[in-house]
Amino acid sequence: MKYKTLVITLVVLIFLTGIAAAKPVITADRTYFDVNTGLYVLNGNVYIEVGKRVITASQAKVNPVTLEVWGAGGISVTQGDIYFTGDSVYVYGTKDRAKIDGGVNLSRTNLSISADSAEFNWRTKVANFSGNVNVVQDGNSWSADSVSYNVELNTFL
């Protein structure tokens, strides 16, 4: 009987630990949960951390179930040395994708990419930039209408 109770307790603890690890950390100057939409509404110094991903913005809405984030106002999306900035972001949390619009910039060591918009896929590590794309890499600069860049391999596709 004690063995069975111990096993059940361990299974419940492992299950709860998995749930706790998936919960996002969400802070802002003003936060409330809209029961009608099921979204957190955040205003002022928004900070959202999901796993190793961090999103900052002036304002945002977050769906804690689907891990979708709609952010606006000086947003940044960071994971490791991947650092995007822009005017607005929509993060498809469960699909590991983000769409950033308005003065998008990606910066990392020896590379800077600016564009009107970008889509990033954390699974494939590919960022697709479009509209007025400007690239500065190792001191060389060039422009294009669109560019695809693999951040893991540090190569253009």
Describe the structure.
The model is unreliable at 1-20 (pLDDT under 50). By secondary structure, the chain is mainly β. It starts with a helix and ends with a strand. 13% of the residues lie in helices and 65% in strands. Strands 1, 2, 3, 4, 5, 6, 7, 8, 9, 10 and 11 form an eleven-stranded antiparallel sheet that branches. The protein has one domain (2-156): lipopolysaccharide transport protein A fold (Sandwich), CATH 2.60.450.
Quick overview:
The protein is mostly beta strands and 157 residues long. The chain contains 1 helix and 11 strands, in the order αβββββββββββ.
Topology record:
Elements: H1 2-22, E1 25-27, E2 30-34, E3 39-50, E4 53-63, E5 68-79, E6 82-92, E7 97-108, E8 111-121, E9 126-137, E10 140-150, E11 155-156
Q: Give me the secondary-structure category.
A: mainly beta
CATH topology: lipopolysaccharide transport protein A fold
Number of strand segments: 11
Percentage of residues in helical conformation: 10-25%
What kind of sheet is the major sheet? 11 strands, antiparallel
Q: Which descriptor suits the 3D outline?
A: elongated
Q: What share of residues are in beta strands?
A: over 45%
User: How far apart are the termini?
Assistant: 60 Å
CATH-defined superfamily: Lipopolysaccharide (LPS) transport protein A like domain
Instruction: Name the CATH architecture.
Output: Sandwich
Q: What is the top-level CATH class?
A: Mainly Beta
Task: Give the domain tally.
Answer: 1
Order of helices and strands: HEEEEEEEEEEE
Gyration radius from CA atoms, angstroms:
19 Å
Uncertain segments are 1-20
Tally of separate helices: 1
Average pLDDT, rounded to a whole number, is 81
